């Protein structure tokens, strides 16, 4: 701060008006007279200025820390600011207008002092502004309009710097509170200091600051639901993250495969795929009471039961985008049950399917599907299947009396949130208006939020960073929503297509914690399982339904001991069967390898296959009450066995899903409490 006795006057006027110095002034006194318009009355003002170490620097003409010895702080010569402006801008100003030249000098000197820039830096900013204009190949001249543009640019840069300081103070203040054991759960700064690059200030003219007492900070209301999500401790986060630098050689596989051309590192995926086959084989053993499994590559005289993975033959695999067909069908066993050998697979004409859904009339096959077959290898070089043993179904989630089962409402929306024509996020704004009108207890938002494949982002036609776009369009708007509905909860699940995410692979860890500054905004991994008031959810952003529909091969077969769970399910509905594949395979993405032409949509990393399991190790094998999978296929909500499956479609289609969950009655599956409506939004009235 300036010494209290020195009252600074308008420099833009003083430097332009003729200065009449009193007689017998020293050089230092003349400098002070030029700066303040009068001589200081305090005798020790020079000493105080040296202690403050603040002065008008000869290069910046603005108050700053000198960083020099006190005896030299005042002795530095200060040239006339107007001469500095003329030095760099004389060639750009109109020669015929003396009045405009005088006005420009006033503004130029004011810019130097107000925005803490030197004359040279001011000229460079002017030069940058000139060349960033459309169809400019030379530096533009000085006009009132261009002066306004320069001032706007300087103001933006100053506010950005202030925001960085404010954000750093807020973070350090929060760390201090946590270190003292003060709980921040349910509290949020009303001033919400933004992150780098956004404008944010503490209220001026008051005592408000990052050190505002904790009791004066507005607190978030208690949520209407009890949320139980994935573990967020440090070890769990590390397991979900991709840390290739820290992997050990022993964690990689030593095998090889002919599918290496298809965007997957099979050296890593082979043991993971083998484990998946062995795990499902144990379920088949228990479900059908099988004592021993056979090897599909070994010749036998009697029928054996085998478990393996559906694959393409080597010729079709190397060809790339080839759809599965009966001529290219192969079965690959695990290394434990059949040495990992791949053999051609053929079905007998009278093939049967046992314990499948009633009315389905066959079985769906696709690359990566784990199947259990009964048949034999008669020495002809292929395995002949006479019966398909359907994988056991997941049991419904039991109703837990210990869990709170109160009613709640929920809205589900999935990206993209803006059209390909622009980055205005108009569809998302319409959805926000609907959310503020309905005030649901829970809002689930699924990425992509800032889509890396958007034409304008791919071409670099953006004015701010993707992180800033996310904060402006999503985080700020979600905080505004929480202001109107303080007891609501927001869940954010990313997408492989999100440019703001550090990992573009599936499965995917949660977004960086820096994006969430409110305890009511939860960041979830992709895919994710969680519960709300005892109702279990399984959510993924990858369009696995479209991928399954593209790769599916339906083999018709005679039904034996069919199972009917839902009397309203005819067994022939395509969308229901696609969702059933996900549940039966117990995987959010059971396809391997992904479709060649769609592999960029998933970027599958099978070395993290544990993150794809619907039933992780150590957890009960229960079906989720709600399965949410956004897809480009037509939106729907269907009951699939014991699960309500939802395709909420995309916000760009003006479609969302609304859930209403009734109170628990103490018995029956959780899905019996759920009512779903998926459709187009209507603008809220009023």
Automatic annotation (TrEMBL):
GO terms for molecular function: DNA binding. GO terms for biological process: DNA replication initiation. It is found in: Nucleus. Residues 272-390 form the DNA polymerase alpha subunit B OB domain. GO terms for cellular component: alpha DNA polymerase:primase complex. Keywords: DNA replication, Nucleus. Accessory subunit of the DNA polymerase alpha complex (also known as the alpha DNA polymerase-primase complex) which plays an essential role in the initiation of DNA synthesis. This is DNA polymerase alpha subunit B. It comes from Dentipellis fragilis.
